[in-house]
């Protein structure tokens, strides 16, 4: 039979119907994007000479060189394989494809062979392309999440809240994940294609992409650029030569697009919340439920002894520092079934793309079950001991003597892993998930977990707490960056005798992860504290002094050490003081209609006593506009209010957020956000 007599005249991938059913219309309305474990249909237009007796053979191809070829069976088979059924209606063949719930995610090309009744080749269609994603709505998928509200937040929501600051003063910033913005999905697969595993053995890598454990681990390795073609380079202090401060970013999309456009050269720069947010974008886009987590007072235990050992000299300077305690640290949790582990390890898994320590030779971390951390099961892969220490380690302060000997001066057994936070399902406020990671502090169950984890049992270490009658504390208000403020160090004497301890107070500027940026003030004095009285030592911190060493994280650390002559029991306390930032006002007046221009107004007042130079606003919002920059002309004088406006055309309906960041030479990380509702165009009929 002549091939030309029965051609396939057209292919309709029915993307509008399929993408709506598969919850992918936000990604693309033209290309076919579907989720595994859920059928989808395409139409083949052909001439009338094609009969019911013609035989169809389907095959799927993955990889740039068709490294993986999958036969599509014409009826369901045991073992969960691809299969199809079809029907011919007039001059159209309706193909319905059924993917298994553990199918490989990626870009597929479908080939259809049509054979005549006598078995001769008749027609081969051109490649029909589509993308397949994980399906958390499918009960047989390893990422299945039965709660619709959680799916709305952890897969479909493009905006989020990231918590930062200190455990006593928690602040937040908005973040635009933007997982459904144009071509973000393509970049997510580009990230996977550039991993070490993919470049080393493409076929093996593609075949493993059916497993969310493997995919999520590859993403944590690829979001940072340490040792591979990853997305972001980390930098934890100024200068940020050749790039942008991590505080500049308000969303993941500009970072991913910049990496892709630069032919997979790493974007400069990121810190923990940026790494976590970009990974959250990628995993949500691929269909894995994911949320951002902030751990306050997060331990970085380098030597694996489940303690953070901080050694100080007599001047209160750190000596030979390796371990550290971060004011906060961000990672992500992804929801998945752990078929590679024993029962009880399903659910939320910790994943950390910030490059800290090597894991199997790569800078990645996780996935590790949150339940394993809570129960102290540190043999569970991946990286359970490191994550357990982040939320449970002791902080031990040592005093180094002149001969190198060390004396333990303080032990904080409950300060690490505080107020572990994520955005609530129910709105833009904080949900505390600390009890997901550990049992209540001091409980019997907590002590059992410590024993299981190989950690020493918590005990009272009275001999290291200093004289019982003397107590030391640091008091402060909520100072604003740019103002002068007081710090009060209180020495309380609950004894029956007067005492005259030596008091050393050191005020320094630090980054959020405890890198010392410089000393702001130091005071050594002998104070007299009468019995049953409190002495208050007041330090005035002036803007002109602290601004010289302050990091862009606007964080002051106060260390106070008290010693009584002839007594071998010093008392020490440490307080972190975040300086709050000024407000940035964002307004979008009037009703907002999709595909119609709208104007936003942004205003900011310089709170400092000095001019601000090189002022710049960055504006972005999913479904509203791509990241745009607005430069301020000239300097912004002290107390001056500057107002700018930006016009844009919303592209998608729904509740959206417009995010704004302000940066200048002296003031950075000023954030603003407003929520808008983009409505469909409506036709109104006037009534008489």
Using the coordinates above, name the CATH class of the largest domain: Alpha Beta
- Annotated CATH architecture of the largest domain: Alpha-Beta Complex
Using DSSP, what is the number of strands?
38
The secondary-structure class comes to alpha+beta
Low-confidence sequence ranges:
1-6, 456-467, 684-688
Count structural domains: 4
Q: Whole-Å distance between the termini?
A: 68 Å
CATH fourth-tier homologous superfamily of the largest domain? Transglutaminase-like
Question: What summary fits the major beta sheet?
Answer: 6 strands, mixed
Please report which band the strand proportion falls in: under 5%, 5-15%, 15-25%, 25-35%, 35-45% or over 45%. Answer: 35-45%
Give Rg in angstroms: 30 Å
Helical content band: 10-25%
CATH topology description of the largest domain: Coagulation Factor XIII, Chain A, domain 2
Shape: globular
Number of helices: 13
On the 0 to 100 scale, the average pLDDT is 90
Index terms:
688 residues, alpha+beta, Immunoglobulin-like, Coagulation Factor XIII, Chain A, domain 2, 6-stranded mixed sheet, 38 strands, 38% strand
Can you give a write-up of this model?
It is a single chain. By secondary structure, the chain is an alpha+beta fold. The protein folds into 4 domains: 3-133, Immunoglobulin-like, CATH 2.60.40; 148-452, Transglutaminase-like (Coagulation Factor XIII, Chain A, domain 2); 467-578, Immunoglobulin-like; 584-679, Sandwich (Immunoglobulin-like), CATH 2.60.40.10. Strands 2, 4, 5, 8, 9 and 10 form a 6-stranded mixed β-sheet that branches. It has a 6-stranded antiparallel β-sheet with strand order 19-18-17-15-22-23, with helices on both faces. Strand 8 (106-115) and strand 9 (121-124) form a beta hairpin. The protein starts with 7 loop residues before the first strand and ends in a 9-residue tail after the last strand. Mean pLDDT is 90; it is low at 1-6, 456-467 and 684-688.
């Amino acid at each position: 039979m002549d091939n030309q007599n029965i051609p396939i005249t057209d292919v309709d991938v029915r993307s509008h119907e399929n993408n709506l059913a598969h919850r992918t219309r936000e990604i693309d309305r033209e290309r076919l994007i579907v989720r595994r474990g859920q059928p989808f249909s395409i139409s083949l237009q052909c001439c009338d000479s094609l009969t019911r007796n013609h035989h169809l053979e389907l095959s799927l191809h993955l990889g740039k060189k068709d490294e993986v070829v999958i036969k599509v069976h014409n009826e369901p088979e045991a073992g969960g394989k691809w299969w199809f059924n079809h029907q011919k209606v007039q001059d159209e063949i309706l193909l319905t494809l059924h993917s298994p719930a553990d199918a490989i995610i990626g870009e597929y090309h479908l080939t259809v062979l049509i054979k005549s009744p006598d078995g001769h080749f008749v027609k081969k269609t051109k490649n029909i392309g589509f993308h397949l994603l994980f399906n958390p709505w499918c009960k047989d998928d390893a990422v299945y999440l039965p709660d619709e509200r959680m799916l709305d937040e952890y897969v479909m929501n493009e905006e989020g809240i990231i918590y930062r600051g200190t455990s006593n003063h928690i602040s937040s910033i908005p973040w635009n994940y933007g997982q459904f913005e144009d071509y973000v999905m393509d970049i997510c697969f580009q990230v996977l294609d550039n991993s070490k595993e993919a470049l080393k053995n493409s076929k093996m890598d593609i075949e493993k992409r059916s497993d969310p454990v493997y995919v999520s681990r590859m993403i944590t390795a690829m979001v940072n650029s340490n040792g591979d073609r990853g997305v972001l380079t980390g930098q934890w202090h100024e200068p940020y030569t050749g790039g942008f401060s991590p505080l500049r970013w308000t969303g993941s999309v500009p970072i991913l697009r910049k990496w892709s456009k630069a032919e997979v050269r790493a974007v400069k720069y990121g810190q923990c919340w940026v790494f976590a947010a970009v990974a959250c974008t990628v995993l949500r886009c691929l269909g894995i439920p994911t949320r951002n987590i902030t751990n306050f007072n997060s331990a970085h235990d380098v030597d694996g002894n489940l303690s953070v050992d901080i050694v100080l000299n007599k001047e209160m300077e750190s000596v030979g520092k390796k371990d550290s305690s971060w004011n906060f640290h961000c990672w992500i949790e992804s929801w998945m079934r752990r078929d590679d582990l024993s029962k009880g390890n399903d659910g939320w898994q910790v994943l950390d793309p910030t490059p800290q320590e090597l894991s199997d030779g790569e800078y990645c971390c996780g996935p590790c079950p949150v339940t394993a951390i809570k129960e102290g099961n540190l043999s569970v892969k991946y990286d359970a001991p490191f994550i357990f220490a982040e939320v449970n380690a002791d902080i031990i302060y040592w005093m180094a003597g002149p001969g190198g000997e060390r004396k333990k001066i303080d032990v904080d057994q409950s300060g690490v892993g505080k107020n572990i936070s994520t955005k609530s399902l129910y709105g833009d406020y904080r949900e505390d998930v600390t009890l997901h990671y550990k049992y209540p502090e001091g409980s019997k169950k907590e002590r059992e977990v410590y024993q299981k984890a190989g950690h020493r049992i918590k005990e009272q270490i009275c001999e290291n707490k200093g004289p019982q009658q003397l107590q030391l504390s640091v008091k402060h208000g909520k100072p604003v960056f740019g103002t002068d403020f007081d710090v009060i160090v209180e020495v309380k004497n609950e004894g029956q005798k007067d005492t005259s301890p030596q008091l050393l107070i050191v005020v320094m500027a630090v980054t959020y992860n405890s890198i010392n940026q410089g000393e702001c003030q130091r005071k050594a004095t002998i104070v007299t504290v009468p019995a049953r009285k409190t002495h208050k030592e007041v330090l005035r911190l002036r803007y002109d002094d602290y601004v010289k060493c302050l990091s862009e994280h606007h964080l002051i650390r106060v260390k106070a050490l008290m010693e009584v002559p002839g007594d071998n029991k010093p008392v020490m306390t440490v307080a972190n003081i975040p300086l709050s930032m000024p407000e940035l006002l964002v307004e979008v007046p009037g009703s907002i209609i999709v595909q119609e221009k709208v104007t936003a107004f942004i205003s900011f007042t310089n709170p400092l006593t000095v001019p601000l130079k090189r002022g710049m606003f960055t504006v972005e919002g999913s479904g509203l506009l791509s990241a745009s920059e607005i430069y301020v002309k000239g300097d912004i004088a002290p107390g001056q209010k500057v107002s700018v406006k930006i016009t844009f055309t919303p592209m998608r309906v729904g509740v959206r957020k417009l995010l704004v960041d302000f940066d200048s030479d002296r003031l950075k990380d000023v954030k603003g956000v407003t929520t808008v509702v983009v409505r469909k165009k409506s036709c109104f009929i006037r009534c008489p």
